[in-house]
Amino acid sequence: MYELAYDLIIILLKIFAILIPLMTAVAYLTYAERRLIGFMQVRIGPNRVGFFGFRMFGLGQPIADAVKLMFKEIVMPAEANRYLFVIAPILAIAPALAAWAVVPFGDGLVLADINAGLLYILALTSLGVYGVIIAGWASNSKYAFLGAMRSAAQIVSYEIAMGFALVGVLMAAHSLNLREIVLQQSGGFWHWYWLPLLPLFMVYLISGVAETNRAPFDVAEGESEIVAGFHVEYSGMLFAVFFLAEYANIILISMLTVLMFWGGWLSPFEGIPLLGAATAWIPGIFWLVMKTFFFMFCFLWFRATFPRYRYDQIMRLGWKVLIPVTIVWLVVLAVAIVAKLPPWFG
Amino acid sequence: MLENYLPILVFIGIGIAFGIGPIVIGAIMGPHRPDEAKTSPYECGFEAFEDSRMTFDVRYYLVAILFIIFDLEIAFLFPWAIVMNEMGWFGFTSMMIFLGILVIGFIYEWKKGALEWE
In B, which residues are within 8 Å of A237 by CB distance? Predict the structure, then answer.
């Protein structure tokens, strides 16, 4: 009995050791987004809110936003299905956070080292679509309904391409365990899966952007046509929870891209004489975080650079380009693995 | 082995709590002054004159059906992908036949125009 309570406390401490940096990263990702896109558009972005009278480049902005949203009224639309309306944001954020249970931050630095890690992640990221579609349905508003329909069809379409890309990773790594997938990539950055699985990496990254409903695939909330899409009726903290889920998903997808295609916590200088030895003291989590930052930056960069796709273009890209590419590459990969072709599968 | 799944269960619970917590805080701290204009469904400045749960394009439904087929296919591919290097050419051939059937179906739906959105 005491043992179980002790275990639970340890687990809770570990969970908060993951969640607190994660939520900080989520908060400051919103700040980074506004600042970076500001700079890319030759604006300044939020730079006023600071701490104790100091501006500090506007670093207090996310906290001010959170406090503001806390004191905003939660408007319950008269026509809405009340319970579903409240459940939808919870359904969006719970899987976005719970997926982190199997994400390894280093060799052995993982909360739950299970063999079905990737399967669990695929299952949980698939659940995200329920939050969107329930929100759109429960709002009982035309814009929300249209946004939810579009968004759901888009998410399930890109999930297929994403799933096929994951199958390629599994074929190369022979394991569902994320720790082993990373360890299989050791031996220098040319052994990381981005090179042998280059088409799958591209497909995964593009699908990741589409799965999180980010620009240029953000027709679900296309401001110019359907206002805000599925969360048009949401306000105050209910909206904030959707917002948190979106940014937690961006960080999750970035982290998974790094773990599966960019060698996770492995050093990029591994196997290089001199440089490899000189940087061997740097802990793996540093590389993991740096690589993840790069992909998070890419998400923001895409938004600043690319114009929004039209909906038929999105569906065409998902079904007619990404899925055929992944199927062809899976066959190529299968031949390479069974025939034990060098340099990667010898 | 099974005790490895306890943290996941706890994490899912915490994830749900992270969703409920802010909503409860927001509901307590925020004002509650509903009025008719505020709680009516959002429209561009006029009264909604039609049920918002209108009929929608059948293609959304079609995409959902195709998704089930392909997602199931992926679920079948997962276990094969992990052990395929041990199965050699036998495993390869069997899965290629399976994939071939799927590809025939994919070409059929493509030619039928199920993937067209104009």
Answer: 22-23, 25-27, 30
